[in-house]
Structure formats: C-alpha cells, structure tokens
Write a structure and sequence with these properties.
heterodimer, A: mainly alpha, ABC transporter involved in vitamin B12 uptake, BtuC, 2 domains, two-stranded antiparallel ribbon, globular, B: alpha/beta, Rossmann fold, 3 domains, 17 helices, 22 strands, 27% strand
Chain lengths: 388, 515
C-alpha cells in the first residue's frame, strides 16, 4: 500500500506542487489570489498558453522537438485577422483566414522538418524571424484595432465575453453553476461507465478507493471553479475554446492511432519506421497541427487585446515549451500528456499572477519564472534517476 | 602460476528488493585466464562492478583481497591504481577523437594545464604495437572498425598499467576472424604473465582460451572448473549454468509438412547506401517453402542483415535489383508498409535499436506494426488492443505481471518474445528472423526455438539468419551459406556439419582474393 501511495505521489508531484504554490500565494496575498475575479483572469490571461502548449506537446512527443516560431505566428495570424476585419469583411471569413494561415505556416515548417530533415530548432528559428517580419509587413508596423463585437465576444475579448445568464439570477450566475454541475455529472457517468465496462470484461481496474478519491477531487475542483466564476461574471467564452482544445487533445494523444504514432516516433523512430509507419508523416502532422494551434492562439490573443500589434506573441513559444516541460514531457520525446500540460500552464500562470498581486518587481518576476522551470526539470531528472 | 592474485570472499550485494550476489567466493591465480560464465542476470557483471569499485566499498558485504591485502575501492580510479582495469562490453571511446586522445582520456600525459601531445602519441603508438594494431594513433576512432576499436580499448587498459585485466563480453560485436585474433592476443598476454578475467556468452571461446571457469548462477558461484584437470566441454558448462542437463538444445519438429515455394528471390543485388559503387548483396537467389525453416549462415559482415532489410520494403541500400515473388505473385515492395501488406515480416537483430519502443508497454509494442488490427477510423479500440496483447503474452509465455509493463524492464529473452508477438500479429506468411536468439540465455533460446517450430507447423515460412553454427544446423531444414555478399552454398541440414560449412566459407574467401 505504501508503495502505491508513493507511486501516486510521484505521478502527481507537479499537481501537488501546484497546490502548494496556490496555498503559498493565498497566504502571501491574504486570500486575494482565489478571488472570483482573479480565477477568471487566470483563465483568460493564460488561454493562449493552454492552446499553444497542447500543440507544442505533440511536437515534443516526437523527440523533444520544439517550435520556436509560434510567438511570431500568433502575431502574424492576428495581424491578418485585424487587417481583414478592419476592411469590414465578415468576421467568420477572418477567422477562417487566420486558421488557414496558421495551417499553411505549419505545413511550410513541417515540410522542411519532415521531408528535408532540417533540424526543427533551426527551421523554426528561421520561422521565428520570418513570420515576425511578415507580421510587421501585414500591419505595416502599426497597431490595428478590432471593433467587430461578434468576434470579440465569441473569442473572449471586450466587455461581453461571457456566456449570458439565461436565468437572470441576482448576484450569482445560475447558468454558469448549472453548466458546472452538468459537466461534473457527465464526467462521473463516463468514469463509472468505463469502469463497469472494464470490469464486466474482466480487465484490471484501478482500486475503487483511489478512483473515488480522484473523482471526488476533480469534481470538487470543477464545481469550485464554476462557483467562483458564477460569483463573478459567469463563464468566459474563452474557457469554452480552451476546454474544447484540451479535451480534443486528451483524446488525440490517448485514443487515436496518430497519437500512438507520436509517442512511438519519439520513443524509437527506427523501430516505428520498420513497423510500417512513415515517421515523416508524423513529424509533418505535428507541425501542421502546431500551426493550427498557433492560429487559434492568434485569434484569442487579438480578441483579448481588441487589437493586433507587431509586438504581440513575444516569447509565447517559451511559455508553451515551459508548460510542457514543467508538466513532465520528456525532453527526449515519447513521454508527456495533456494533464501535465494543464498543470504546467497553471503553475506558470499562478506564479505570474501571484507575484503581480504581491507587487514583486517585474524584473525579478522573470528571474523567478526561470528558476521555477529549472527546479521543475531538476525534480523530474532526479525522480527519473531513482526509478532506475 | 599458483599465487593467488585476487580473492573475493563472501561477497553479498543487495539492491532494493533483490539479492544480486549471495555469498560469492571467487579466486583468481596469477597468470591465468579465468572465465566467468552464467546466464543473463546471474550476477557476473555485478561481481565485476564490485571488484572495480563501481559499487563502492560499503555498499556490499565481504572482502576483496588483492595481492594479499584487503582493498577498499571507493571509485574506479582506486582499483585502476592497483592495476585492476575493466573493459566494458559497450566501448567507451569518443568517435570524433583520435586513437591517442582516447587512450589517454582522463589519464592525460603532460602537466596539469598543458597536454604533452608528443608524449601522448608516441606512447600511444607503443601500446598499439603491443596489441598488434598497425594504425597510427592519429587516426580518428570513427574511421576504424569495431575489431580495431576493441584493440584500442585494450591498449588503453595497458596504458593504465593493468595487471589484472577484466574483459566483459569483448567479442560480442566482433566477427569470427576478429574474435579469434582477440583471443589469440589474450593467450599471448598470458605468456607474458598477465592475469585476465573474461566474461562471455560464447562457450566455444571459453573452451578455447580459459584455464579456469567459474560458473555463476542466481547470484552465487556454483562451481569452478579447472581446464587442466576436468574434462571441460560446452555441454558440461551449460549444465552448470542452467543447473540441469539439457538433453536437446533444439526441440524436434514433428509432422511438419513442407509445401510449395512461398517466397522466392532471384538475382537480388543491393548497393551500399553511401558508397553506392560497393555491392553489398551480390546476385542472391534463394527460396523458402511453406512449413520450412531456411537458415542463412554467414559471418558478421557477410551481408545477411542487408539482404533481409533490402527485401523488407527497401529498408536498406540503394540501386536494388532483382525479383521477388511471394505466394506465386511477383511483388515490388517500396516501403515496410507494402512489405507487411504482402505478408512479409522482418524481425530485426537489433531489438533495442530497431525493434522495440523500450519506454512503452508490451501492449503498445505488440500492436505497433498492425494498428489497423486494433483500431477503426483512426480510433484505437483499447479493449481489443489489451486482449490481443494478453493473448500473445500467454501464447509465447512472456514472463511479466501485466502487459502494461514497460518493455525496457524486461529481460532480453522476454523482449525478443514481445518483438516476435508484434510481427506475428501482422499475420505474415513469411518471417525473416535476424539473429533471433542473440544475447539471450539458454533457457529462453529453447523457448524461442519452440515458437519457431509452432510457426512452421502453422504453415508459415521462416528464414532464420544466424551466426551461430550449432543453431543454424539444429533448427534449419535447409541452409544457405553467405559470404562477402554472395550465396556460396546450399545444403540440407542433414548433410551440414560445422566443418563443411566453415570449409566452404574459407574456400570462397580464398577464391575471392585470387580473382
């Protein structure tokens, strides 16, 4: 039993670290970090990290390969959208153009990486310069405002970027609370059904106690977040996008053939090739997909700022990479998952926000962020060493 | 001779949960070659790691007495200072550096802040002469073959003033000629009074070179055979290793009908991928029938793996010509996928490098080559995948608590079974098994042979590439002999003997030189 507990602790080390960090700031900021407004901001401000990190994880899985260009692509794609909407073209056309723009950028980089074997670090370094430049070209060096309210509301910018309360409750947003309850119910039903199905076929299942504990913690957490949001302005629309992306990628990495191939290529590329799988296609997919996520992150970024600027997206790639590595993705590929990415992104987000509320000098904030990344990786390396 | 140079007394070494060495006693006399044999995981390497200080004093129980004094080694440097030098199975050389730089790496000549390169290279040349290597010490390691690299390792050990040399599987990556040369070098060193311990799986080498043989089994020393007194042969050693008499190393096949030709290759020629003018496989013709095991025997470097991989969807080589027929249909396989679709499977010799994803589970590895079999429209049916993995685990008797176990944690024999399971799940008609029993112990070998028998009993064809003659003769129905890229002979296994196969190879090598 004690072995199992330590195993669980190891598996959830970073999640436990996240809780410790939250408690630390809760004390230091006399409770303000968990105010409804701050929870809301944590989600809205870090939406791009979740989206980019989901894409980045797939690249990292293929062998620790990263994409340095995503920050520039976010800026480039956002610029395109802003310019198109400024010309009074329909917002959905703009959205389509931004996503396709991201896809094309991904295909461009993926082609060089997968089929010409340009090292990803260099191919995307080149992209980092080139797309930053193109963003400037598109915006001609100026900031461009976005006034299309549908676009802003749907993608989490402006004042009305919350799901409206259909019940018009006073003080508390009932819709938000109901959505939270429904989400929890669906989650519990799915877990139980999977468990019953597995048991009826005689498969090994996790012990009931540990599964129940996990279920209770997750349910309580979700309800608590929705409760907090309900006490602010309700569900921010951007949360929907983030949730959709995270759910989709949990499924892709865990349940699809492509997901399996990403892990296999990162684990042993030669063996994967000899198993009849063309690893070039896998690399190409990872980078095209990264482009698509950069496109979506670009949309969310310009919506939140209600404008596009040639400086947007600076160092976003590093936030995404850091979230993946803090979340336990292996720098050699083949290991990592979306749950870890969520935890990693939250750790970075909470530290950012906590320090801002505490009024830590902005210069030191970056130093501390750097140290956190280092500590997380040291932790990972040490715990892996012990395994051997 | 006669003086005890080393005595390890009552050595016990425990790892969390496992007793790797249990009260081991091991005695080496001055000037002898002492072989340490045992199955994988028996504790040979652990014992040597205790001796060389890799496991420092204090982490084990018992005493090491070397030249009459009790030693406490805390790190490798301590044992090396006394003249105990270990050469590990994996060569520890930096490919981009010269022979000279490698030889004195960590042991540089000159003062603290300035390396004396003249001294380095002249000394390196001196030691190279001692091991009979004619290369200049300015040559880069990556430009010489593995046989010569092994000699550099030995020269490096000599440069450390070794008096007790430990060689861990020194011939595992060498071909027959280089292996023999290395063993002869050991015998020469012995004449000069050097004491050596050799760890090896190859029992013919043990018989050839050793004065004494200590057998390790399950963490204890079972017996020490003295080659001068006891009647030592391979069967006798195996008996000690596995603890029982192995009456039949190769299981018999009963009532397997050999049917019509299943796969035929004609005029198969392959060129080297980089040096495209070099012919690696030269106009090879062969066939394999249903229910038949065809052995392809050749020395390392004969072009066997190259032949197999070029057939498997052009996974090796350039400018491949020739025709290939499977089930009477001529096929042109351009990728591993097409090969799999035509019911061909290639089970690699290099299971860690080319075969398995070590960090992933048995389940994931079993389904990897046939994801269509466990998924629909791109989505994996996890139930089906799990069941299939369990099915193969039971069928092949893979020893593991669960199929979720990471393949990297399995023993060599069990890894080989997972690799076989992966390819059996692609439902092939023809399996090319490249060195299917390399590096696995006697018991697991037998089980692999049984699996091969089951495969042909089910009407499949097996092409078995091997560089072990007894295995080739014992398992095959028909044998092709390959040398320098050519097939130089074919014979039914019933007519094959170790002598006539080796004679054929030597003859063809000589003939090649004349031409």
């Amino acid at each position: 039993m004690s072995v199992k507990v330590t195993d669980a602790l190891k598996k959830y080390t970073m999640a436990i670290a996240l809780v410790a960090i939250v408690i630390f700031f809760q004390v230091q900021t006399s409770g303000s970090i968990l105010l409804p407004q701050n929870i809301n901001n944590l989600i809205s401000q870090n939406a791009y990290v979740f989206v980019l990190a989901a894409g980045m994880l797939l690249c990292i899985l293929t062998g620790g390969n990263i994409d340095l260009a995503v920050g520039s692509v976010v800026c480039f794609v956002g610029g395109i959208g802003a310019v198109v909407m400024k010309a009074n073209i329909n917002e959905w056309v703009a959205v389509a153009m931004m996503l396709i723009g991201g896809l094309l950028v991904g295909a461009w980089q993926g082609f060089w990486i997968a089929y010409v074997k340009v090292p990803p670090f260099i191919a995307t370094l080149a992209g980092m310069y080139a797309f930053r430049g193109l963003a400037n070209v598109v915006m001609q060096g100026y900031a461009i405002g976005i006034s299309n309210t549908t676009f802003l509301n749907v993608f989490g910018g402006g004042a009305d970027c919350y799901i409206p309360d259909f019940f018009g409750g006073d003080g508390m947003n009932l819709t938000c609370m109901i959505v939270g309850v429904i989400a929890v119910v669906i989650y519990i039903v799915m877990v139980l059904r999977a468990r019953i199905a597995a048991k009826s076929k005689g498969y090994e299942v996790a012990p009931l106690a540990s599964e129940l504990i996990k279920m209770i913690i997750i349910s309580a957490l979700v309800l608590w977040v929705f409760y907090k949001l309900a006490n602010y302005k309700g569900i921010p629309t951007v949360l929907i996008w983030v949730a959709l992306v995270l759910m989709a990628y949990t499924y892709i990495t865990g349940n699809t053939r492509m997901g399996r191939y990403l892990y296999a290529v990162g684990g042993n590329e030669k063996a994967t090739n000899l198993s009849g799988i063309d690893s070039r296609k896998i690399y190409f997919f990872a980078y095209v997909n990264m482009g698509l996520m950069a496109g979506l992150a670009g949309i969310l970024t310009v919506a939140r700022a209600t404008m596009a600027q040639p400086t947007f997206g600076n160092l976003y790639e590093m936030d995404a990479i850091a979230a993946c590595f803090i979340g336990g993705a292996s720098a050699y590929g083949g290991e990592g998952n979306i749950f870890g990415v969520i935890v990693g992104a939250l750790i970075m987000g909470v530290i950012n926000q906590g320090m801002s509320i505490m009024g830590v000098n902005a210069n030191y904030q970056t130093v501390i962020k750097g140290l956190v990344v280092l500590i997380a990786i040291i932790f990972d390396v040490l715990s892996n060493k012990k395994k051997k | 001779m006669g003086n005890t140079i080393l005595e390890m007394k009552n050595i016990t070494k425990t790892f969390p949960g496992v007793k790797a060495l249990d009260n081991v006693n091991f005695k080496v006399e001055e000037g002898e070659i002492h072989a340490l044999v045992g199955e994988n995981g028996a504790g040979k390497s652990t014992l040597m790691n205790v001796l060389s200080g890799i496991y420092p004093y204090g982490t084990y129980e018992g005493d090491i007495v070397y030249k009459g004094e009790v030693c406490q080694f805390h790190k490798i440097k301590d044992s090396e200072e006394k003249g105990i030098v270990i050469i590990h199975q994996e060569l520890a050389l930096v490919p981009q550096m010269t022979i000279g730089e490698n030889m004195f790496l960590g042991n540089e000549r000159g003062t603290k802040n300035a390396i004396n390169w003249n001294e380095t290279y002249s000394e390196a040349d001196k030691y190279l002469k001692m091991v009979g290597l004619s290369e200049s010490s300015h040559v880069l390691i990556k430009d010489i073959g593995t046989g010569k690299q092994q000699l550099v390792e030995i020269a490096k050990a000599l440069a450390k003033n070794a008096q007790l040399l430990i060689l861990d599987e020194p011939t595992s990556s060498l071909n027959e000629t280089d292996s023999r040369a290395l063993l002869d070098l050991m015998l020469e060193f012995k004449k000069k009074g050097m004491t050596m311990i050799i760890i090896t799986h190859k029992l013919n080498e043990v018989v050839y070179v050793a004065d004494k043989i200590t057998v390790v089994r399950d963490g204890s020393t079972v017996e020490t055979l003295d080659c001068a007194k006891d009647d030592v042969n391979e069967e006798r050693i195996i008996k000690g290793m596995v603890g029982r008499e192995i009456t039949d190393r190769f299981p018999k096949r009963h009532d397997v009908k050999i049917g019509e030709v299943n796969m035929e290759v004609k005029d198969w020629t392959v060129h080297h991928p980089l040096y495209t003018e070099r012919v690696v496989v030269d106009h090879v013709n062969f066939n394999v029938k249903k229910g038949e095991v065809v052995g392809i025997y050749g020395l390392m470097g004969a072009g066997r793996t190259e032949l197999a991989m070029s057939m498997f969807g052009k996974s090796y080589g350039t400018d491949i010509t020739g025709t290939m027929t499977i089930n009477g249909k001529e096929v042109n396989l351009k990728s591993p996928r097409e090969a799999i679709n035509e019911k061909l499977a290639y089970v690699t010799e290099d299971r860690k490098g080319n075969g398995l994803v070590l960090g992933k589970s048995i389940k994931v590895n079993t389904s990897l080559a046939n994801m269509d079999g466990v998924s629909e429209r791109g989505v994996i049916d996890t139930d089906r995948e799990y069941n299939i993995a369990v099915q193969y685990k039971d069928l092949l008797k893979t020893k593991t608590p669960t199929v979720e176990q990471s393949v990297g944690n399995l023993s060599g024999g069990n890894q080989q079974k997972v690799l076989l399971a992966k390819w059996m799940f692609t439902d092939p008609d023809v399996l090319i098994l490249d060195e299917p029993t390399r590096g696995i112990d006697v018991g697991a070998k037998y089980e692999i042979y049984c699996i091969i028998n089951d495969l042909v009993a089910a009407g499949k064809s097996v092409v078995m590439i091997s560089s072990e003659l007894p295995e080739t003769i014992g398992m095959s129905d028909r044998i092709y002999i390959m040398n320098e890229g050519k097939f130089i002979g074919e014979m039914p296994a019933s007519e094959a003997t170790q002598e006539n196969i080796m004679a054929a190879i030597i003859q063809s090598t000589g003939g090649g030189e004349k031409a």
